[in-house]
Design brief:
164 residues; mainly alpha; Rossmann fold; Arc Repressor Mutant, subunit A; three-stranded parallel β-sheet; 9 helices; 3 strands; disordered N terminus; Sig_transdc_resp-reg_receiver; DNA binding; Response regulator receiver domain-containing protein
């Protein structure tokens, strides 16, 4: 039976449904038709085992190709713009190459204070503050909220990790 999930809210994602369907029916072709064309949505769809990812504004031929692909190659993935999205991800990863210390600073996602970060990393509060400042600079952020959004957008942290 076809399953349709559609939501105007950006935090409501078809990927949990897709993952559940993929787990139950490994040979089922799954096509995500979405208004959200962001790279992170595309990559989440790919990671959950979706067969094809296509934008709602795509030409009918592209939508039909996605459906055909899902019907004959359910366990593989296709999406228009996948190569460009992969290139953007690699470019961003290179630009945002974080040091191991900066990666540890993703404690920020849990609302941990600078003194608590300092204690966790066994550094002084001023050193922790310097690390946080450098991280903000690399992410192009001026606040914790901006840094978290940039980290999510650039794949440095996962949405499920950010809300856990």
């Amino acid at each position: 039976m076809p399953h349709r999930t559609s939501s105007p809210w950006p935090w409501a994602s078809p990927t949990p449904t897709a993952r559940e369907l993929r787990d139950r029916y490994p040979t089922l072709g799954i096509v995500v038709l979405t208004a959200q064309g962001e790279d992170d949505v595309l990559f989440r769809a790919m990671e959950t085992g979706v067969s094809a990812f296509v934008g709602k504004a795509a030409p009918m031929e592209e939508i039909l190709c996605a459906i055909r692909h899902a019907a004959v190659a359910a366990s593989s993935f296709t999406a228009a713009g996948l190569a460009l999205a992969m290139a953007r991800r690699q470019s961003t990863a290179a630009r945002l190459a974080l040091s191991p210390r900066e990666r540890e600073l993703m404690l920020l996602r849990d609302g941990v204070s600078i003194p608590a970060i300092a204690r966790t990393l066994y550094v002084s509060p001023s050193t922790a503050k310097t690390y946080v400042s450098r991280l903000y600079e690399k992410l192009g952020a001026s606040s914790r909220a901006q840094a978290l959004m940039a980290a999510l957008r650039n794949g440095l942290i996962r949405c499920d990790a950010a809300t856990a």
